[in-house]
Write a structure and sequence with these properties.
The protein is globular, with a radius of gyration of 27 Å. Strands 5-4-8-2-1-12-15-14 form an eight-stranded mixed beta sheet. The protein starts with 8 loop residues before the first helix and ends with a strand. It contains 17 helices and 32 strands. By secondary structure, the chain is of the alpha+beta class. Strand 20 and strand 21 form a beta hairpin. The longest helix has 22 residues, at 227-248.
Length: 628
Amino acid sequence: MRVLAMTAALALASTAMQPVAARTAPAAKATQVPVDYDIAFPRAEHHEAQVSVTYRGLPRKPVRFQMARSSPGRYALHEFAKNVYSVSAVDGTGKPLTVERTDPYGWTVAGHDGTVTVRYTLFGDRGDGTYAQIDPTHARLNIPATFLWAVGQDARPIRVRFHPKAGWKIATQLAPTNDPTVFTARDLQYFMDSPVELSAWDERHWPVTNGAKTYTIRLTVHHDGSAADLDRFAAMAQKVVAQQIAIFGEPPAYDYGTYTFLADYMPQISGDGMEHRNSTVISTPKSLAAAKFSQIQTLSHEFFHSWNVERIRPAELEPFDFTRANATPSLWLAEGFTQYYGPLAVVRADEMPLDDYVRQISGTLNALINSPARRYGGPQEMSLRAPFVDAAQSIDPTNPNIFFSYYPYGAIIALALDLELRQRFPNLTLDDYMRRLWRSFGKPERSYRPDDLRVALAQVTGDQGFADRFFARSVTASGLPDFAPLLAQAGLTLRKAHPNAAWAGGTPGVEEGSLTIAVPTVPGTPLYEAGLDKGDRIVSVDGHPVTTQEAWTALLARHVPGDRLPIVYRQRGGERSATLTLATDPTIEVLPNERIGQPLTPEQTRFRQAWLGPRPVPTASLPVPASQ
């Protein structure tokens, strides 16, 4: 979440490093009276918190308090007000005030003396980057899901006091004070962007430098694993962090001198990753050891966001509006390029085998190339569908064939651009493009518009035509390059996985003894063209009943692409007959040449090393246990 203004909240954190900011609030705002929040957990076993907020110096007119409907890092609506109840209010003398609720999202308080304290109970039992989870082991708080605010008072500095349970510590990007239970934010935007973990977490930390400046990377982990596991994970994280810093040439200027990973690896948690300006939430219900340390990929993805999205930021997300869905046509870069660099940094850190990385590329490329969604729009269109799919809830079904996530879509666009740059322009890579965006938009914290990305590509390549063609083909439209020669540069072979196999377009499932189409069929596939769709039950194929998946597989094995088979099926209107024309299985795969008996050439070896090998990084100290 990009922060727009600095206020007098900084004075409240006298022990903290002064942050670097691109915007300065008007002088009049710097004297506003701070907002005071207070949160305690007397009934943590019932997932409840007791919350209060006090505003002073308010105009003596009705004031509206409300909960957010959206959250930084999310692009859909989330109705946080549903978990707020037992709302009451008093004025500065303790006199009870009438609280009027006229809509689902907020409360209005009138008749006050310029001071209003609102108290309420919060329920929270989903632990991820979007909601709040409260239980006897921890409180994982996403601020928009936890605290209401007074409308029109966004620029006020904020203080928040936590009342942790015995044994809990507080981890957050909020600015610390001399009191270890009190933290501050310079305004509502920064406050809402600052998740908090209260638990008996363990910590590892290490320094990173940028010239004369040193920043601290903190890894705080709430888990039930061993210290040795955490040491191993911290060492992996340090290598990944170093590789990402090498991409941009420097770390961001982290406010208050610190970047914090807020990690939860507990059974009750939900898997997630959510970026913030100076921290990130990363969680999975498996322990480090049980997940075989695969959490490193989420850590890598989210850390890349501290450049891309948090500082190289789409204009449509700034300032963030907590009352509506926030959307931008640039998520293919904001999220998709981050999706590309997440595993790439892990490979460069030598923490992922080549085969595993190529397997990921293979699966993602196959899914996109064979997706029908591209006929309905390119990555910009998919980005704008985010409010409908980003953990959004709906009752009515949607057509799954019209959307392909901007995460993998953007990752493939990044792969294409990286390989095309390396092919066409000596000594140019996607790293150079990201550094250009960093210098143009990230360091000065100047948000970009969609066309700025095309202009930047022309600047870094010196070839306006190439930039125009790339964006026209693969960003505003849905075209893709021929990946076979691009991947061949690195000694990777793109080929059909089952070139001679007959294919019907999906494997039906078994339901109540019948072979049933379990998901919507895909346009262009044999089953779709024969008229079958989700819920249809197959009676017979080629005159024979087919009631098991094994029988279906055996049927296809007896035939070749082009065979025409009569099929009988039951649909909502009754029993129907059609002709099923089998096709060639379109599944593709990417394999390292050495896995298929083709030795690498010296040129392919050099290309692969330049692409996937480690970047030079400065020497840094090893992760060390934090002092308690």
